[in-house]
Amino acid sequence: MVILSKPAIEQFSYVRNKQPAALFPPLIPIVDLSEPDSKHQMIKACEEFGFFKVINHGVPMEFISRLESEATEFFSLPLSEKEKTGQPKPYGYGNRRIGPNGDVGWVEYLLLTTNQDPNLATENPDGFRVALNNYMAAVKKLACEILEMVADGLKIQPRNVLSKLMMDEQSDSVFRLNHYPPCPDVVQSSNGNVIGFGEHTDPQIISVLRSNNTSGLQISLRDGSWISVPPDHHSFFINVGDSLQVMTNGRFKSVKHRVLANSVKSRLSMIYFCGPPMSEKIAPLPCLMRGDQQSLYKEFTWRNGRIFDPDCTCWKPILSHGKRLQQECRAAIVAGSQAGNEAALLWNQNRWKRLLEDWCKLNTDGAVRGSQAWHPVGIYEGLLTAWSVGVRNLVIEVDSLKALRIVQQDLAGQRSLAIVFYIVELLNRS
Ligand SMILES: C=C1C[C@]23C[C@@]1(O)CC[C@H]2[C@@]12CC[C@H](O)[C@@](C)(C(=O)O1)[C@H]2[C@@H]3C(=O)O
Ligand SMILES: O=C(O)CCC(=O)C(=O)O
Ligand SMILES: [Fe+2]
């Protein structure tokens, strides 16, 4: 983890709990694999929560502890050593920046593909490699068993209809080690909690998660409230991913989850994400469509649906659509003004200017949160996205004069918040 020159809360997103915690939050479903009824418990949990805990899983504790200690050793190496593993593109060592969308979190991680020998580039990688291989093989077996039980529970055949996707040699499964160092600013912060890993759903079929005994993981319930998942280092947690949601035509919902940073203890999690082969077509399974039920999802090829692959997002049509809308707006305002339309006249007086050819506009209204705090994450993220999609001529519109002044002061050389430093760095890129 990089040493920060300013408190973490200035650089990282934080969340306020929008809803007061329920007095008796529902308990996370526990599925005991040694019980005969476990497949039905799994189906119920996947329908209600998209999430459950597995006990009596059969993964040897020795593989788990061995990987935990190797990973702890890896993350305690100097940054320069860890970076030798390569930047996450998408595989490698990453620090604070998660994925291609400019998300940031109080986390460092190692993202690996499961079908290639990992490039660990550390001084003595052999022990780490063996620990990873043993752990991954055992967890893959567990995931396969779970998916076969799910197929049984759904009464679909053959029972490997789901598991065969992740067992395929070409399966695009990934493995991730996340390390969340203690974040001292969590206690001091009146703003809420510092985000370790921002809210998201996992795009794969299922994810098999194990962590040390540090809390932080939260899942979102159907009513939008968040509940904390009590850590249990002896068990595994299963997330329903987006692909399984699609394949079950929405009967299962992928679970929205996030991780909050802890003030004193570090959290280490290891997750096996079971993905299908790249060329696999993902669509609702016909055998799960009852009667005249309609398909709720369009078929997509996993390669193109991988939300973390920036090449799979068609930015050009999005940008040209924006430009087209801009021209249509302008034409409507001009026509409205000529017809004496009051609103259009006001818009015109507001000197709404049409952008020059090849320019884009970033609107960051709402980037400021709360009356006291100025938290320019919107500007930072917008700039980062604009940069990563190749936009070089950008007009930035902010709805706060204070925000504008702070950035202008920093541009003139006066240091303020650390995140503004990053904003200025992006503005100065050529
Ligand atoms: C914040 C993000 C990281 C992620 C891509 C995303 O924009 C949203 C999904 C994230 C996730 C979660 C599961 C896996 O860790 C991952 C590799 C994936 O397939 O989707 C990550 C993405 C990532 O780190 O690139
Ligand atoms: O670290 C955790 O506990 C969860 C992280 C996560 O959701 C992810 O890596 O996709
Ligand atoms: Fe996740």
UniProtKB/TrEMBL annotation:
Keywords: Iron, Metal-binding, Oxidoreductase. InterPro entries: DIOX_N, IPNS-like_FE2OG_OXY, IPNS-like_sf, Iron_ascorbate_oxido_reductase, Oxoglu/Fe-dep_dioxygenase_dom. Residues 170-276 form the Fe2OG dioxygenase domain. It comes from the Eukaryota. The keyword Oxidoreductase applies. The keyword Iron applies. SUPFAM superfamilies: Clavaminate synthase-like. Belongs to the iron/ascorbate-dependent oxidoreductase family. This is Fe2OG dioxygenase domain-containing protein. The lineage of its organism: Eukaryota, Viridiplantae, Streptophyta, Embryophyta, Tracheophyta.
